[in-house]
Amino acid sequence: MCTIFIEKGIAQVVCWLIARQDVILIQNGGDRMTIRRKQLIFLFICTLIPLIVGLGLTPLLPVYAESLGADSVLAGLYLAVVSLALTAGALSAGWVSASRFGRKLPYLMAISLCIPLYWALGRINSLIALILFTSLLWFLGGLGLALCSILTGLSAGKDERGKVFGVIGLTSGLGAVVGGLGIGWMVKQWGYPTMFSALAALSFIGFIAALFLEEKEDQPSQLEEDQPPVGSPLGRHYFFLFSASLVLSVSSSIFILIRSLSMSALGFDALEISSAGVVAGLISFPLPVLLGLLSDRVGRKKVLFLACLSLVIALILLPFSRALWHFWLVSIIVGVQAGSMASAGNALVMDLVIRQSISKGLALFGATVWLGGIIGFALAGFMMQKLSISLSCYFGCLLVVAAVGLLIPIKVAGGLVSQQEARSAH
Predict the structure, then answer these.
(1) Are 356 and 220 in contact (CB under 8 A)?
(2) What's the pLDDT band for 88 if we cut at 50, 70, 90?
(3) Which helix (H) or strand (E) holds 322?
(4) Residue 53 has what pLDDT?
(5) Which of 288, 298, 330, 412 keeps 20 to 30 A from 418, CA to CA?
(6) Rounded (5°) CA angle 49-358-206
(7) Which of 206, 40, 197 lies closest to 109 in space, CA to CA?
(8) Is 235 left (phi over 0), alpha (psi -120 to 50) or beta?
(9) How many helices (H) and strands (E) in the chain?
(10) What is the pTM of this model?
(11) Are 384 and 72 in contact (CB under 8 A)?
């Protein structure tokens, strides 16, 4: 009953948000979004459910691993293995999308397999079993999220990419709130078995929502057909963006692990550790839409530079965090980075690659989050054993500076990015 109530509430919120989005566009002299409202709602739900699990459960995974005998190094390696599974799932989405199975059927298969896996995960009692079951679930989650991202890109019109990805990007904040509150509270009240049973029920809701998704044909529009591709299907500038996103993901993963282990060392319980993500999700909830609209107007790169700045500020403040509200504050600041990548980052991928390469481009770009997690979690675990928290965070800041250097040369010759930056200059 609880999950059905939440699902209805989410659907109502999404309908209201999309209605507000249409009003914003008209007030600014734009056209209504060409993506069908029903499609956007179900894409929102199908993206939200894996994020509820991932964002709600990830802060507790190193703590849970430590309860089964892992130290900080093993906890970091555990998250690295899980992120490797996520990366493999996200990368496989490009191949799966290009196959005769399309995108909808593989998503249905992936989320249906999650149901028994969640139930089993709540009944394990060894670290090896935890790694195995979590890795399988994260692989399926990475595949599902990447397929939803591809469907979103193919469903969105050229001039509304930032807006549409911004609406879908709201799932990050909402997933952090629902996942953090629900998962942390259930673990504290009833323990892990009950919590994982609830996640199995949530996956069943996602399966029902996916039945209503529309499969979009990967056909280029006339405008895009008239623009000959330059260089490789993805291109040099795309790989600058890919590398920048990867480096930012490494730095962000360093932040996440240090935050969780620091809070655990300071004596915060599971609900309090989860609350950092919840508060950040509540405050930063509208950011993806706002940043997506902003990227459509002033250019994607400027919004991504803002993301880099927010991550640097959070990493500088994290070593000085002691009270619960300190961790809330740095998590809210990091929310700007997450919202920017979810909206402006994905939209920039669409601007940079030709239509026939959208599936591959979005899948690879989405995989940078998980690939960065592999490197970042493993690196943070070792650094916290060898270095202080402050030095580990400052190393993360240097990575962000490197990401800025990779973003600077990105251009789309004669494309949307150049036009946006030209407009913003006047």
Answers:
(1) yes
(2) confident
(3) none
(4) 86
(5) 288
(6) 15
(7) 206
(8) left
(9) 18, 0
(10) 0.66
(11) yes
